[in-house]
Structures are given as C-alpha cells and as structure tokens.
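Shapes recur. Our protein:

. . .
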Amino acid sequence: MRRLAGLALLSAVLAGALIAGAGPLGAEGPKEGRVYIALWFDTEDYILPQSDDAAKRIALFLTQQDIRATFKVVGEKGRTLERRGRRDVIGALAHHEIGYHSNTHSQHPTVAEYESALDWESGVEEFSRRERPGYDDLRRIFGQAPTCYGQPGSSWAPQPYGALKNWGVKVYLDEAPHVGLEGKPFWYGGLLNIFNTKEGPQLRPRDDWSNLADSKAKFQQFYTGMSSRPEGGIISLYFHPCELVHREFWDAVNFARGLNPPREDWKLPPMKTAEESDKAFQYFEGLVTYMKSFPHVEFVTASEALDLFRDAAQQRVFSMQELGDIAKQVDSEVTFEARENYALSASEIFVLLNRFVTGVIRRKASEPILLESTPYGPGSPAVELKAEITVPWSQFSRTALDVGGFLETRGQIPGQVWLGSAAVPPESYFVALARVTSTLLLKGEPPESVSVPPARLAAAQYVAQDASALWEWPIFPPGFHSPHLMELARLQAWTLKPAKMRRTQ
C-alpha cells in the first residue's frame, strides 16, 4: 500500500510540474509526429495609434525568435500605416507573411450584412467589388500578395470563397462556428480551411491575461497527443495586436449594434495601463517561447500550412479501377470520401464519374481521368425527390452530356438535373450516376434503364443551422441573422472534405 501511495504521489508531483509550466517535461517522449503552430494576428485597429506599435513589437519579437507568423491585415489598416508614415511598422510586418482581413472590417455593411440577401454569383461579384481594393492595397504596401483570408468578427459568408479562389488566395484562416470538420483542417469552397478548430481557442488569454500557467499546461497536453501520432497535428492560435494595449475593442467603441458614424466622429478606445499592457505582452511572449522550446514544434505560415495539407487529389489521374472503387462507396447519404492518401469531395466525385460516363457515351476509349478542379455546390436548392423514378438509358445518356456541359461552363453542380421533363435533385442524379458507372465497368455496356432514387447531401451536417450563436458579434445590428447564408453554405458542402496532412518527421 505504501508503494502504491508513493507512486501516486510521484504522479501528482510530475503532473504538478507540467501544470506549473516548468518546461517541456514530456519533450523526451514521443518523437514521431511534428506539432505545427499556425500563429496569426488579426491586425485591424486603424483608429488607436498605439496599436501600430503593438503590431511592430510583436513582429520584431517573433523575428528575433526566428518565427514567421501570418499577419492578417485590414486594408484600411495598411492605408492608415502608410498615411501615418509608419514605414517601420510596415517593414516589421513584411518580414512575416501577410494575410487579408477585409477592406474596412467593421464599417457597415460588413461582409455578412451585404451578402445576406445575395445569391451565389451575385455574392461572389459583390465581395470582389467591395473587398478587392483592400487586397490590392496590401499587396502594394507590403510588397507581397496576401496568402489567406479570414472574415471580420463572425461576419462569415460562403460567397467570398468563390472570389478568393479567383484572386489566387488558397487558404481560409480564422475561427468561427459556421462550418467545420471535427475541429480539424478541411477543404471547403476549393480553399484549405484552418477554421473552427479546437486547440488554439483554449490557449487564448482571459480578460486579465492571468492564465499563462493554465495555457502552458493545455499546450503540453495537446503536444503529447499530437506528437504521438505519425502525422502529428496543427494548432491554430490567434491574437489581435490591439488587444495587448486597449481595454475595449476599437470597433465596439464606434460601430457596435449597427452604428456607422462618419470618420470625424470616431472615438479612441480606452487603453490599458502600462502595467496591464506589460502583463499582456508577458503572456504572449511567455507562451510563444514555451511552445517553441518543445523539440517537435514548428511554426508555420498560411502558405506553409497549405504545403503541409497539399491536396493530393488535385491533378491526380484516376484509373478505371479507382473510379469503380469510388463509385461503390456512393449511396443515398451523399458525402465526401476519405481514402488512404487523398480525399474527394462529393462534387469532385460527381465530376469524375460524369466524365467517365460521358466518355462511354461518346464512344471514346476508356482512359484515366484527370481531376483538375473542385466544382462549387449549386447556387440554389432543388425540390426534393420523394420516390424513386426510372428513365430509359437513352434519356439518362442525354442528361449526362447536358450535365457535363453545365460543369464545364459553370464550374458548379447544377441546382437541379433534368431528365426530360422531370427535374431531380443533383444528389439523386449523383447516386444514379454511380450505379451506372459500376454497371459500365462491370458489364462493359449500359443498362436498359436507370433508377434514380431519393438522396440527400449528408455532408451538409457539418454546416451550422442559422442560429443567434453564429451572429453574436457586437458589431451586427440587433437581431441580425441570415438563414439564407447558411442555406447557401450547406449547398457548398458538396465541396467539403478532410485535409490530409502529409507525414513529416
């Protein structure tokens, strides 16, 4: 009994040392997987001048630590630094990677507000009209094109994905609950999403910045779990430079509850005392140096994360056998497929199978098929198919050719698929398409008729339903919500799939 009690006491002492943040006690343990930290800063306050120096201090500290981070800068913040002649701040941030955090952030209408009543195509165009000037300004001011985007506050919408992809932005880097995949990185809208993650938010400071020891202990826990896996893991952690020097956010002072005063009426937010600000910087610098001390930790920028999660399905040539295996996994619960070395979204499977079937219809030789892009989801919902219907092969083949033309022209899944005079949801056509693919590969000839069953987009379960919790940002006007945006977001779940990290040891 004494021996057991002694072991229990030793365990308690060791656990206490970890919680106290005495150092990476477990650093000599697991050595297989690397733990990547995507450290990013929403650099947004263009009202309080002291926030400029906060951003500079952070950037210089990280440079001294040989750490490159991602500074997501608001367009107006970049222009303000330029007007103030703060080339020192611009230069300090330019040593890191620049991301984009909207053009004016909290001035109304914000992104979700102006997108809330727009369809997919109009929303893509409107985002470009309003936001592209800020992106271009940052590229000019910092001498580098922003590599990622994240929405202001919780002002999220799906349409920006289409615009960002057109601009060449390939990473969506932020936190919000609108869409997610079990707290891990995922592909959605054709972009790598490091979004709605689990670990980073738990390392954030409390209001009084007094929880450094607790955050160190949590990081130790995350590190132990991730480094024990061959593929490792990634932690997404963010700060706002302004929060280290102010007591209240700059935008809450000026734009809360839908207010939109003119520039001459903007007010400075209240500042922390020197002691309070020092405490905040001590938290930030202490946590960063602690995380860096672990042997398998590596800090990554947005573009470096993109390389870690490189999409192995894109530009892949799929053999007939692979297409057959993929088609067998399709059922009435339409969703992504996660395979050993790559993952496919429902829209990617849709285009691969449709190309195979149309190739047969055109009597072309069965050739491997190259996946060149991720079609977007439909722009509008379809009417539900309540009972299975059957159509002759002659009709299905004509429809497949028509769908192929739609995919090539529009780059998205059609909102409804016409089988002669009957319109069916794309999910139902998709299931029938997979069955036809299997038949063609097995028998070498098409069926006389094709059954089209009811089906649903099961991948949509990873997109939140419209609820007040999604729109709790104090900048929104009272009562703001948008079921339309979330319905459109669920349609884009056709593009959702896991992001697989390549193994690096």
In short: The longest helix spans residues 120-142. Residues 317-462 form one domain.
